[in-house]
């Protein structure tokens, strides 16, 4: 397996693309053994030190090493039909990017690889950003719809006046956000008075709030809750249950999730794209 770039038609296929593998879930990964061969490391032991540096860079960047570097045992052929087991690291695209940044810069193939993975990593980042935008738009619309339904059910329970509904909503937030009211969350997220907290939530936080809203709506209706106090208590209990689930799963508490850019900007960009204009 050489370092030459295979030509197809008018384009070029990177040698790193040729050794890319895909698992059943559709995720891309590379074998460190094949990667070392492409980079022309004759002795794999010399390449292991490169991987260790890449793992350290991964840790220092705030990513989990095990999410990008997976140690496995593979069987390789040794001639005359024989095989033996060897230790291999399965690496994500990001892991490959970090690894090649720590490889021998004097090798021409390393320079090519640095360019390839820098471009591909940026493309992946842009794709991930697009997916996150789509999720946020979908979830934000769902919350608008379910908040309207929740308001109707709360009204049936006796939460009629706007001030009472604001208190009712705060009980749900306090359950989910560990006692924080809407104004506390607003302040914690460093938002201006004119900005809505739901418009500045990422998809993970939006999903938690959607679950809170849908389950509160369902419980109020199913249990035929009556009275403002009972409705407030129910909403708080549901929010607290969602928070407990997040904790049990090892997730980040919603108040600690980062503030996202305004979803209004994403909506505006998508409207322009639909009209065939520039997305800015």
List the helices and strands and how they pair.
Blueprint (H helix, E strand, L loop, with lengths): L5 E3 L2 E3 L1 H4 L2 E2 L5 E4 H7 L5 H17 L8 E11 L2 E10 L1 H9 L6 H50 L4 H15 L5 H7 L14 H20 L5 H21 L14 H12 L6
Antiparallel strand pairs: 1-2, 3-4, 4-6, 5-6
Helix pairs in contact: 3-4, 4-5, 5-8, 6-9, 8-9
* Overall 3D form: elongated
Query: Helical amount among residues, as a percent range?
Result: 55-70%
Structural class designation: alpha+beta
Give the H and E element order.
EEHEEHHEEHHHHHHH
Total of DSSP H or I helical runs spanning 4+ residues: 10
Show unreliable segments: 1-11
Whole-number total of structural domains: 2
| Strand element count | 6
Oligomeric state: single chain
Strand count, sense and barrel status of the largest sheet are: 4 strands, antiparallel
Strand order of the largest sheet: 3-4-6-5
Strand content: 5-15%
Question: Averaged pLDDT, please?
Answer: 88
Radius of gyration: 26 Å
Q: For the record, give the distance between the C-alpha atoms at the N and C termini, rounded to a whole number.
A: 43 Å
């Amino acid at each position: 397996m050489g370092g030459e770039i295979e030509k197809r038609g008018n384009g070029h296929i990177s040698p790193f693309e040729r050794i890319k593998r895909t698992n059943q879930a559709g995720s891309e990964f590379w074998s460190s053994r094949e990667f070392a061969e492409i980079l022309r490391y004759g002795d794999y032991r010399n390449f292991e030190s490169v991987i260790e540096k890449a793992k350290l860079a991964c840790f220092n960047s705030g990513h989990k090493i095990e999410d990008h570097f997976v140690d496995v045992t593979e069987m390789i052929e040794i001639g005359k039909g024989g095989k033996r087991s060897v230790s291999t690291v399965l690496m994500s695209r990001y892991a490959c990017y970090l690894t090649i940044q720590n490889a021998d810069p004097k090798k021409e193939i390393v320079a090519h690889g640095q360019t390839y993975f820098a471009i591909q990593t940026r493309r992946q980042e842009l794709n991930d950003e697009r997916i996150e935008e789509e999720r946020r738009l979908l979830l934000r619309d769902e919350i608008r719809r379910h908040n309207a339904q929740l308001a109707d059910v709360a009204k049936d329970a006796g939460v009629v006046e706007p001030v009472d509904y604001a208190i009712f909503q705060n009980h749900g937030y306090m359950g989910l956000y560990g006692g924080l009211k809407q104004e506390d969350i607003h302040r914690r997220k460093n938002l201006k008075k004119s900005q809505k907290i739901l418009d500045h939530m990422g998809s993970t936080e939006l999903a938690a709030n959607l679950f809170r809203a849908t389950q509160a709506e369902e419980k109020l209706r199913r249990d035929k809750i009556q009275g403002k106090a009972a409705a407030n208590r129910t909403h708080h209990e549901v929010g607290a249950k969602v928070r407990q689930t997040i904790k049990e799963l090892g997730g980040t508490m919603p108040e600690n999730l980062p503030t996202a850019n305004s979803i209004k900007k994403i909506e505006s960009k998508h409207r322009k794209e639909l009209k065939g204009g520039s997305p800015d």
